[in-house]
Amino acid sequence: MRDRLAAHGRNNSEAHEMSQVVNGAGGGGSTVQNFLSEITSIQSSISQLDSNIRTISTLHSRSLNTGTDGGESKAALASTLDNLITETRSLTTSIKQRIQTLGDETKDLAKNGKVQQTDLDLRRDHLSRIRSRFMESIQEYQRVEQDFNSKSRERAARQYKIVKPDATPEEIKELVSNGVESQGIFAEATLASSTRYAESRTAYREVQERQEDIKKIEKTLAELAQMYQDMSIIIQQQDESITQAENNAIEVEKNVEKGLEETEIAVKHARRARRMRIMLFWIAVFIIVVLALVLGLALGLKN
C-alpha cells in the first residue's frame, strides 16, 4: 500500500509539472499537450509494471516456500504467476512500442523543422526521463528473475543432495542443468532402499517443479535482455537522428542568414548603381543644355 501511495504521489507531482509546462508553452500547444498526455499515460503504465514486478517477486517467494504436496493451492499459485508474467510481458512490449512511437514522432518533427527549439528540448527531456525509468524497471525485473533462478537452482540442488548425499558439486551442477533428464539417480535411490521411496518421489517432484521454473525464468530473462538491447538501440538511433536534424536545421538557418546578408549587399549595390545612373543622366542633360546654349549664343552673335 505504501508503494502504491508513493507511486501515486510521484505521478501527481509529474502531472502537475507537465501541466505547468503546457500552460506556459508558446506555439504548438495542442501538439505538446498531446505529447505530455501520452507521457503521463506511459508513466502510469510503468507504475503498473513496477507493481506487477513486486507481485511477481512475492509469488516467487511463496512458490519456494510452498511444499510439493500443496495440491490445488500450489497449482493455483502457479497459474496466478503464469498469468501475471504473461500480462507483464504484454505490458512491457506495449510500453516499449509507445516510447518508440513518441521518439519517432519527435525525430520527424525535428527533421521537418515543425517544432520550436524550446518544444524540442521539452520533448527530449521527458523522453529521456521516461526511457530511463522504463530501463530501470526492466533491470529490476531482471534482478527479480535472476534471484528466483538462483534460489530455484539451490532448491533443486538440495533435493539432489537428499537423494545422493555424496554427490560432488560438479555432479550437482550437471544434474540441475539436465533436470528431469537425469532422473535415473532417483530410481537408483529407490532401488537401493525401499525406505527412501517416499523421500525420493518427493525430491523428484520438487526437482521437476524447479526445473520447469528455471525454464520459464530463462525464457523471461532472454526476453528482458532482448528488450533492454532493443531499447538501447532505439534510444541511440533516435537521439542521433534528432541531433542530426537539429544540426541540419542550424545549418539551414545559417545558410538563410548568409543568403539574407548577401541579398542585402546586392540590394545596396543595386541602389548605388541606380543612383550612379541617375547622376550620369542629369550630367548628360546638363552638358546637352550647356552645349545648346553655347551654340545658340554663337549663332546669334554671328547673325
UniProtKB/TrEMBL annotation:
InterPro entries: SNARE, Syntaxin, Syntaxin_N, T_SNARE_dom
Coiled-coil zones: 207-262
Cellular compartment(s): Membrane
Region of interest: Disordered: 1-26
UniProt biased composition (Basic and acidic residues): 1-17
Source superkingdom: Eukaryota
TM helices/strands, residue ranges: 278-301
Alphabetical list of Gene3D superfamilies matching this protein: 1.20.58.70
Keyword field contains Transmembrane: yes
Occurrences of domain T-SNARE coiled-coil homology (ranges): 204-266
UniProt topology in membrane: Single-pass type IV membrane protein
Primary localization class, coarse: membrane
Keyword tags: Coiled coil, Membrane, Transmembrane, Transmembrane helix
Protein family according to the UniProt entry: Belongs to the syntaxin family.
Name the UniProt record assigns to this protein: t-SNARE coiled-coil homology domain-containing protein
The organism of origin for this protein: Marasmiellus scandens
